[in-house]
Specification:
- By secondary structure, the chain is α/β, with parallel strands linked by helices.
- It has helices at residues 19-31, 46-60, 83-111, 133-153, 174-178; strands at 2-4, 38-40, 65-68, 115-120, 158-163.
- It is built from 5 helices and 5 strands, in the order E-H-E-H-E-H-E-H-E-H.
- Helix 2 (46-60) packs parallel to helix 3 and helix 3 (83-111) runs parallel beside helix 4 (133-153).
Length: 180
């Protein structure tokens, strides 16, 4: 299953993913002989996300691993971040992870066979990196959410882990935001 908002976000200077990008993901998965269920959904839309997950589970019959990987980033000094930039970043990076987990956990518990939630945080979720306080705060939140959910879900044999990449080759280039 794969979801993407396929849109440009107000707080970012780089191009967002497109419907063509999502279609390419589908093509690449199907080219391996596998199946995929995809949907254009913003992770901030819990109802849309839950509907996409329900449709995928109906199609494939079960859920084993969930990866919450949506995120946006922009670069500014902390006191120059607008309220709108702060809110969009936190809503996508942290709220989107929460929505993804909230939609998936009931299925994982009901199956009774355990499972795995993997949340993409960042090296910025482990330390305070400059020029992106909203991103850092959201990624620290992801790390804390994962720790709490790991404690809550362990009794159901559901693992919750975070990954903390740095320097991934994407359009997220803070240097471009910081240059005059």
């Amino acid at each position: 299953m794969a979801v993407d908002a396929c849109t440009q976000f107000a707080s970012t200077s780089y191009a967002g993913a497109t419907e063509a990008d999502l279609a390419e993901t589908v093509r690449l998965v199907e080219a391996t002989g596998r199946q995929i269920h995809s949907a254009k959904v913003d992770v901030r839309d819990f109802d849309g996300l839950a509907a996409a997950l329900n449709a995928g589970i109906e199609r494939f019959g079960r859920l084993d691993v969930v990866v919450a990987n949506a995120g946006v980033c922009s670069g500014k000094l902390s006191w120059e971040i607008t309220a709108e930039e702060w809110q969009e970043t936190v809503d996508i990076n942290l709220g989107g992870v929460f929505n993804t987990a909230k939609a998936a956990i009931p299925f994982l518990i009901e199956q009774g066979e355990g499972g795995s939630l993997v949340f993409t945080s960042s090296v910025s979720g482990l330390k305070g990196t400059p020029f992106n306080a909203h991103y850092v705060a959201s990624k620290h939140g992801v790390t804390g959410l994962a720790k709490t959910m790991a404690n809550e879900l362990g009794a159901h044999k559901i693992r919750v882990n975070t990954v903390h990449p740095a320097g991934v080759a994407t359009g997220m280039d803070l240097r471009a935001d910081m240059l005059p």
